[in-house]
């Protein structure tokens, strides 16, 4: 009986947060996820000077506090809202483990927050800071929903050469509807124009003289949930990145899970990413919103901007791209969960092919990536567990993927403005070993 109740409790816990009802009808919820871990990234193609030595840390990964409520308007209509804020319980500030600002924590509404209206026959319409594309629902929760980190290749990687189009975005409107087990969401966002992928900068609806605010994101998510299997497909495109015409970052992701018993499943994910008319490598595409000259290598100089961002064009392993190259990459993930009594075993393996599309003479050989996570959880109750995990990313000599999610890496790129390995440290292999305690309320 205890095993059955615990398995059912585990399944229901990840379908929705636990809530505390206040007298005014507002629901208070949250989670705390802290522990002790060790981070390192060694093996850089350029030599030990580009490695990151072992660092022992007290970590916090995606702890949060939220308020949520519903008002019955009659006739099958309801007003709804959510204000969710990240909380760094380890430090009390808004910094990631790498010491730089994490836009998803440390202030009100830093996580998914919205207000909207829904109807029994209408669906749901919301406005606010909302997620699109990157979230895999119940298909893959090996990450901050279960432990400290999972594979960065299974969501929308922001560290490495080719990056995804969207994640948690400001200034977003979403419409969702459900029919039986099938649900769909359409999203539109006017993202931040400066370091858009990081959630920084001014909103793109602001107007500047002589400059169009034309960066925007469209996204669609389709899900089918069944007692035995779940399916999900996501598409999104960030158009005119940093206000440059036809610099479009797109992604398509599809996955499925077979739930062969309570607390156990096998799932697969595939993702195809395209960065059109790049301005550099990975997040360096957001380093400036100024126009660039297509066909001119940043390493060779591009006006006044050349000396400032030349390093982003060449990797520590010798690979390179030219300005306005269109880069493509395919990524795949397989994961497994198995619960026996109070213990759940977790395995995840991801791999990504070489990045295609470089027109530079050096090209991008050895830009493939592999990642794996091995972990176990011991349930003390339905809402509290201990866990231990080992997660590693194995980069080819010309890639630099890292644990950017939750700003969990100790490394910084873009002169300390963003989390993750810098391009000069390509070939280094990030690794995190952790023990932690997770409690939801």
Report on this model:
It is a single chain. The two termini are 24 Å apart. The strands form two sheets. The protein has a 16-stranded antiparallel β-barrel with strand order 2-4-5-6-7-8-9-10-11-12-13-14-15-16-17-20. A two-stranded antiparallel sheet has the order 18-19. Residues 1-23, 193-203 and 295-312 have low confidence and may be disordered. The protein has helices at residues 2-15, 306-309; strands at residues 20-21, 27-42, 52-60, 64-74, 77-86, 113-119, 123-131, 168-179, 182-189, 216-225, 229-239, 249-261, 264-275, 327-340, 343-352, 369-379, 384-395, 412-413, 418-419, 429-440. It has 441 residues and is mainly beta. Strand 6 and strand 7 form a beta hairpin. The chain is globular. The longest helix has 14 residues, at 2-15. It has one domain: Porin.
């Amino acid at each position: 009986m205890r095993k059955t109740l615990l398995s059912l409790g585990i399944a229901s816990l990840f379908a929705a947060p636990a809530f505390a009802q206040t007298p005014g009808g507002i629901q208070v919820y949250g989670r705390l996820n802290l522990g002790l871990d060790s981070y390192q990234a060694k093996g850089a193609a350029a030599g030990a000077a580009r490695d990151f030595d072992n660092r022992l840390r007290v970590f916090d990964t995606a702890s949060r506090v939220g308020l949520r409520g519903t008002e019955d308007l009659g006739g099958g209509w309801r007003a709804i809202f959510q204000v969710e804020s990240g909380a760094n319980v380890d430090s009390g500030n808004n910094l990631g483990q790498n010491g730089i600002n994490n836009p998803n924590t440390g202030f009100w509404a830093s996580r998914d927050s919205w207000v909207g209206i829904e109807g029994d026959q209408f669906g749901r319409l919301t406005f606010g800071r909302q997620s699109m594309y990157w979230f895999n629902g119940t298909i893959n929760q090996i990450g901050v929903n279960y432990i400290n980190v999972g594979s960065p290749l299974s969501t929308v990687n922001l560290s490495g050469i080719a990056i995804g189009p969207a994640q948690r975005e400001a200034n977003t409107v979403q419409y969702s509807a459900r029919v039986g087990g099938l649900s769909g969401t359409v999203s539109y966002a006017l993202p931040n124009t400066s370091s858009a992928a990081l959630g920084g900068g001014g909103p793109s609806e602001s107007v500047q003289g002589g400059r169009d605010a034309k960066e925007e994101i469209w996204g669609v998510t389709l899900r089918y949930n069944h007692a035995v299997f779940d399916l999900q497909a996501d598409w999104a495109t960030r158009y005119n990145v940093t206000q440059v015409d036809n610099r479009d970052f797109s992604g398509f992701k599809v996955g499925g899970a077979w739930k062969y018993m309570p607390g156990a499943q096998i799932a697969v994910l595939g993702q195809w990413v395209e960065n059109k008319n790049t301005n550099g490598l990975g997040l360096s595409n957001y380093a400036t919103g100024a126009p660039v000259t297509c066909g001119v290598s940043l390493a060779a100089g591009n006006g006044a901007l050349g000396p400032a961002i030349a390093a982003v064009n060449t990797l520590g392993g010798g690979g390179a791209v030219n300005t306005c190259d269109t880069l493509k990459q395919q990524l795949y993930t397989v994961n497994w969960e198995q619960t026996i009594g109070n213990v759940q075993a977790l395995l995840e393996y991801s791999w990504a092919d070489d990045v295609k599309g470089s027109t530079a003479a050096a090209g991008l050989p050895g830009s493939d990536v592999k990642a794996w996570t091995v972990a176990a959880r011991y349930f003390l109750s339905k809402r509290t567990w201990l866990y231990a995990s080992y997660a590693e990313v194995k980069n080819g000599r010309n890639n630099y993927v890292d644990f950017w999610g939750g700003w969990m890496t100790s490394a910084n790129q873009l002169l300390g403005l963003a989390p993750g390995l810098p391009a000069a440290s390509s070939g280094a292999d990030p690794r995190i070993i952790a023990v932690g305690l997770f409690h939801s309320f």
